[in-house]
Design a protein that fits this description.
about 180 residues; Methane Monooxygenase Hydroxylase, Chain G, domain 1; 7 helices; 4 strands; about 10% strand
Length: about 180
């Protein structure tokens, strides 16, 4: 967080200059209303669960070393099931104040991040550097010298791969 603050301070003046000649964005009032409704929903609920329940479910999924450091398909699937259970809980979160509302949004971000992490880890069928799959213990440059790309398409995660462009690197790695 401090890096973000520091970098913001470094670029602030140039951003102000760049924005002087930039027209203001035109906001769609319906989208603004939808965004506000979604943002404040936990505050408006009469009853529900505390965001800490969602966060604890995510911790149970990502915390164990065997789910996040030394992985296997079976354990990744178990972790993903916990994450998806936490995702279902998001619509039940209730916030009692703005601090609690922030925690609710933090829980939502944790669920999103964990879902991407587990789905991408299941997709990669190899071990590489710190990414260790006991069911795929070897590096596979022929099939997996790739980036995994996650995109939001109509509210759903779409996963694809993109070759690592090593031919464009100024310094080439030793032959693989």
């Amino acid at each position: 967080m401090l890096n973000a603050v520091f970098n913001g301070l470094l670029v602030a003046e140039s951003v102000v200059e760049a924005c002087k000649n930039t027209p203001s964005a035109v906001l769609d009032p319906d989208k603004v209303a939808q965004s506000k409704k979604r943002t404040y929903a936990p505050l408006l609920r009469e009853e529900g669960i505390d965001s800490e329940e969602v966060i604890e479910t995510i911790r149970e999924a990502i915390g164990p070393v065997e789910n996040s450091v030394y992985m296997s398909e079976h354990r990744l699937q178990m972790g993903l099931r916990k994450v998806l259970r936490a995702k279902e809980m998001l619509q039940e979160m209730k916030a009692v104040d703005f601090h609690d509302l922030c925690n609710s949004h933090e829980a939502e971000a944790m669920v999103l991040s964990a879902e991407m992490q587990f789905k991408a880890a299941l997709m990669r069928k190899e071990s590489r550097g710190w990414f260790l799959r006991e069911d795929y213990p070897h590096m596979d440059n022929e099939n997996w010298l790739k980036y995994i790309i996650v995109e939001n398409q109509s509210g759903e995660m779409q996963f694809s791969t993109e070759d690592v462009p090593i031919e464009k690197w100024p310094i080439q790695p030793p032959s693989m």
